[in-house]
Amino acid sequence: MAAPLWRRGLTAAPWTRGSFSWLLSCSRAIQTTAVCHKNRAARVRVGKGDKPVTYEQAHPPHYIAHRKGWLSLHTSNLDGEGGAAERTVEDVFIRKFIYGTFHGCLANEIVLKRRANVLVVCAVFLQRLPPYKFYFLVGYTETLLSFLYKCPVRLEVQTVPEKVIYKYL
Amino acid sequence: MAAASGCLFCARPMLPRLCAGLAAGPRSLLRVSAYSTALVVGSAGPSPGQVAASRRSRTSQIARNRRLPGAPRTEKMAVDQYWGNVYPTAAAFNPSSVPLPIRMGYPVKRGVPPPKEGNLELIKIPNFLHLTPPAIKKHCTALKDFCTEWPTVLDSDEKCEQHFPIEIETVDYVSAGPSVRNPKARVVTLRVKLSKLNLDDHAKKKLIKLVGERYCKDTDILTITTDRCPLRRQNYDYGVYLLTVLYHESWKTEMWENEKTEADMEEYIWDNSPSQKNALDTLVRIRAAEKTTEVTKEELLASEIVENYKTTVVALKNEGETENNILQYKESVTKLLNLQALQ
């Protein structure tokens, strides 16, 4: 869309197209109105059709509650309830923690569910580690997070052979 | 990466097994065998060709040792299994445990919704697979042992009110988070009908004046809400204490209560009111003017016409102006003043 610009100096007209006139026609432009960039939040830009994308990545945030659910379920965002900030900070930490503990094995985002006192972490992993390693890491995560947050933490794990592709962008 | 000829911390040459363990890092000791054949003690280090060979053999060994995923549980389920064993408690959706061909999600163009394997949307939503009717029946039979029968005497609301006139209301709050406490849980509400309390006319009026807003005239219910104490038990005790104090205080008559003026009265009383004086004066004067029998005020008061007039005036003042009230007032006035001619 054409933004208003101020042009200083000679504008390049067809008859001034000679080597000398190009030196003179230094046209610089200054943007004078507010800049309105396109929204880039949580959106995977369309490419050549070779970018595999999961269901979660393919849908931008305005599809939440229409085609997507919520990744974190707790009561703090209801009217009159408190603790929303604490739950959010816990969520962020747990996501980073699990991303690092099961490095390279996460097939999709983690779903966090809070049921009264219990924190249920639902994760979908790729079958990149042998099962005994998975069991050890699951026990390690559960114990460590239980001690960190002083509440029972349960990890409910599913494995898939490879990432579930929704479409190619 | 540590060279095979010596360890990082001291200059001692190391055994190939230990070397391989260090070089392999946190990987399993099973891989040591792949390394130990390639490394030689005292040599300058594994040559690139040997390293490549060891890596290829390692990946093939990983491929060989890799356990293939077993068949999902859905294929081993009997048709008449007890579903409560699959989902005994609330759990996330597991596609290999639920033998249903469920699809969820927005379909791709000219496609179908994504299948259940690895479907995050199915995991996100809360499911009730653990609450099938047979499972609920099982819960109820287990809980029945801890329940007592409802008393058969209390089979209607009136009987409940008669035996338990005071109603206590408390609210418990449940939320998701590590803390059980909620400050709103300390509020206690006490409700009682004043007709159930043993109050005479003066006590009832005094009680209503004392509580003010907390009394509802239409339902005759006194509501006391307490939340000034930090604990629910304390608020309950305080509420009961308030009720006791109100009851006892309303029965007492203080010295200053005889200074009650007409503005303090709750309802209109005809005796000793200007209306009574005016009516009696008027009637006495009418009798005097007509020079009929002399009637005393007491006889007038006792007569039916004046009684009628009294009831209509009281009704008008207490209940407000309704069509019925005004008609009856009109009739009583016509009778009082002997104005039958005016219809």
TrEMBL record, chain A:
One of its GO terms (cellular component) is ribosome. Keywords: Mitochondrion, Ribonucleoprotein, Ribosomal protein, Transit peptide. Its main location: mitochondrion. GO terms for biological process: translation. The keyword Ribosomal protein applies. It is found in: Mitochondrion. Pfam families: MRP-S24. PANTHER family: MITOCHONDRIAL 28S RIBOSOMAL PROTEIN S24 (PTHR21244), SMALL RIBOSOMAL SUBUNIT PROTEIN US3M (PTHR21244:SF1). Belongs to the universal ribosomal protein uS3 family. This is Mitochondrial ribosomal protein S24. It comes from Mauremys mutica.
From TrEMBL, chain B:
It comes from the Eukaryota. GO terms for biological process: mitochondrial translation. InterPro entries: Ribosomal_mS35_mit, Ribosomal_mS35_mt. GO terms for molecular function: structural constituent of ribosome. Residues 44-71 are annotated as: Disordered. This is Small ribosomal subunit protein mS35 mitochondrial conserved domain-containing protein. Residues 181-252 form the Small ribosomal subunit protein mS35 mitochondrial conserved domain. GO terms for cellular component: mitochondrial small ribosomal subunit. PANTHER family: MITOCHONDRIAL 28S RIBOSOMAL PROTEIN S28 (PTHR13490), SMALL RIBOSOMAL SUBUNIT PROTEIN MS35 (PTHR13490:SF0).
